[in-house]
Amino acid sequence: MFPLHFLQRAAAALSLPVVARLSGAMLYVVGLGLGDEKDITVNGLEAVKKCERVYLEAYTSILGVPKERLEAIYGREVVVADREFVEQGIDGMLNEALTMDVAFLVVGDAFAATTHSDLVLRAKGLGCKVKHIYNASIMNAIAGCGLQLYRFGQAVSVVFFTETWRPDSFYDRIKENAQLGLHTLLLLDIRVKEPSVEALCRGKKEYEPPRFMSCATCARQMMEVEETRGEKVYGPDSMCVAVARMGQEDELIKTCTLKEMCNIDMGGPLHSMVLVGETHPLENDMIEMHRAAPHDFLPADQVPSQYLSDL
Amino acid sequence: MFPLHFLQRAAAALSLPVVARLSGAMLYVVGLGLGDEKDITVNGLEAVKKCERVYLEAYTSILGVPKERLEAIYGREVVVADREFVEQGIDGMLNEALTMDVAFLVVGDAFAATTHSDLVLRAKGLGCKVKHIYNASIMNAIAGCGLQLYRFGQAVSVVFFTETWRPDSFYDRIKENAQLGLHTLLLLDIRVKEPSVEALCRGKKEYEPPRFMSCATCARQMMEVEETRGEKVYGPDSMCVAVARMGQEDELIKTCTLKEMCNIDMGGPLHSMVLVGETHPLENDMIEMHRAAPHDFLPADQVPSQYLSDL
Questions:
Q1: Which of A29, A36, A39, A41 to substitute to test the interface with B, most B CBs within 10 Å?
Q2: A311 band by pLDDT with thresholds 50, 70 and 90
Q3: Chain B residues with CB inside 8 Å of A120's CB?
Q4: Using the beta-carbon criterion (under 8 Å), do A109 and B34 form an inter-chain contact?
């Protein structure tokens, strides 16, 4: 509507919200869905193609494909926005979004993570126009395992136990759900771009390799907490569903007991898990289709690695 | 892989699962997302374009656009599969899916409704190969209002009260959520292709016009049930968020009290509502962005119609 150089000069003279309105510029917050570069919606793709800057949020989830495959279908460079970027470098992006179309891409859907509410609030505060393009996230795609979404209680996060920190608040949330007969979706820890302890000491920017929690590790941590707390919220025979790479070509869904889950081999990330509550017969039929077979497990004497490696 | 006429003859001679494997045919169960014909994913669109038959499930939700707009981008005729079709005519579709690619389209995502689990089980029983293409549904897109998904308890359905039938089981579910401080998503009644009482008596196929519940009607029914049950699960001052046409161009989000909600004007269908639980400050900031203004309400003396008309 107005030439860019005019807008940039105007930005110095006028209030930012006025500039944003004049420019017609938009910040598109676009969910990419769960699979590959083609799980973006057609509306999402059309929006991204007209953006001058494209950022990919890459620390609350991971892409199932290399970012070059995104760039190929967008015809645009994709800048990876890691944790540091989202927490510190976001203002530059928001300023851009005052005078040009900018896309902020999120694997799954944007509003699964609190960070993105914060982004929207800051954007609106600056006067950016924001448009959200919805997509599937694990929070609804989990129904693909055959359990009904309206039978789920609150979702919980399970983080890696360390020698000194074994947070078990998920146990209380599961208990609340279980008392109502509801299923619990367990979202498993993702550690991407974590500074190494050594690097922190030296003030250097060095990062640990990416680490992802497996269903087997989650099940082991759950068993430990039940042993410690002893409130019989669940037990070795509790029915669980493990899902891996949901929505991707090699999506895997397996149903087994919690004890069996401690040795299940679900392959590469991302994994999620459901602790099953009371079931409708139709739900039983669905999850039984995915009953784990002997070859789905690691040998009984083999302890699964705590961390899944990157793709 | 094999010519179709061979497969059709083979179907008579061989078991159906064998035919399905030979043909390489697939039943694609495709979520359309929440907005217009372009909220399908790129993968979904590519799958539909190669299908010989395309069915649109049209009774658990409604499209935001006429089906002709789907047909235009698919280059395919779209057959509307209404309640009658899904409950009675589904076998014909599944038999087709043994020898040719068939798409079954669902507004939002497929697994929000129990019907579609049933479809998948029947398809697998017949030997069909089934591929699910995920998309956004109201169950995750509700986070677009600014409330965090992991703070939601079980979702509930609210159906139209009649003179003789005023089902209030949603009250118990809300109570369970409220006691845990959780938000409740209320999915509001949709009545599409309901046979008219007159038609039922005469054995004719005549249907009532489509009817959709508004947030105002939901709020009025909730107030009535609280008055009857009196357990103070919520009250006139309870904070609510109304959403209308989520994911569509004219998406509308409004925050107000339950009492105010009884007179809110959210426009055409579909509506959904959230009864807000305990909130994080970031959630408060988000829902306050959508605080309803005086012009969002009908005049105090005007009783909103119980039914929203069709688009």
A1: A41
A2: very low
A3: 146, 286
A4: no
Please say whether the beta carbons of B289 and A124 come within 8 A: yes
Residue A205 in contact with residue A88, Cβ under 8 Å? no
- Tokens of residue B232, six digits: 């103070």
List, in order, residues 6 or more apart from A196 with CB less than 8 Å away: A206, A207, A208
The ipTM of this complex is 0.90
Q: What percent of chain A has pLDDT over 70?
A: 92
pTM comes to 0.91
Nearest by CB to residue B135, choosing from A132, A136, A176, is A136
CB B175 within 8 A of CB B182: no
8 Å CB contact of B154 and A150: yes
Cα–Cα dist A236/B165, whole Å: 44
User: pLDDT of A268-300, one tens digit each?
Assistant: 999 999 999 999 999 999 999 999 999 999 987
- Give long-range contacts, CB 8 A cutoff, 24+ apart: B62-65: B62/B107, B62/B190, B62/B192, B62/B210, B62/B212, B62/B269, B62/B270, B62/B310, B62/B311, B63/B32, B63/B107, B64/B34, B64/B35, B64/B36, B64/B245, B64/B247, B64/B248, B64/B311, B65/B36, B65/B37
